[in-house]
Request: fold
Amino acid sequence: MKIRPLTPEWLAKAGSLIDHAFSPSRSELRLFDALHANNRPLYEWVCIHRGAVIGVLTFSRAYHGKQVCGLHLAPMAVQSPMQGQGIGSELLRFALRQEAIAGQAIFVLGQPLFFQRFGFLPCTVPRCPFVKNNKHFLSLHHDGSESFTIGYEPEFSR
Reply:
């Protein structure tokens, strides 16, 4: 098992993994494809095992108005048969150690029990526009208290 930056050679396989992981919904795949089609600045890694992409993780920019205020973690996926083996955890630990990610405010809409193991905490501000009362909205390295609605790349609202 090797973790590598997502390169064009792995892009289709990473998209296929996202498609299968979130099936029957296609919204995560549409998001992934649109972020790439529009050349958004992303930080992404894949976990490769025997020539297959078994995990993928993407960070995109988070906004306070027009200012970048951190990163959003989404999408993140592990092949269904490989889940529960620590692959997603290792992929996330790896990404959080990378210079481009370390120390930045990171926001995620996800399962609190999973993300709290990595230091993510429930986030009351900023407000997430995709969930009521910020349920399942967490942050890491965010110490702000200013109330605002966090912004996402435009592809998130399509």
Q: What stands out?
A: The first strand starts at residue 2 and ends at 5. The helical segments are 8-21, 27-37, 87-97, 112-115. The chain has a mean pLDDT of 95.
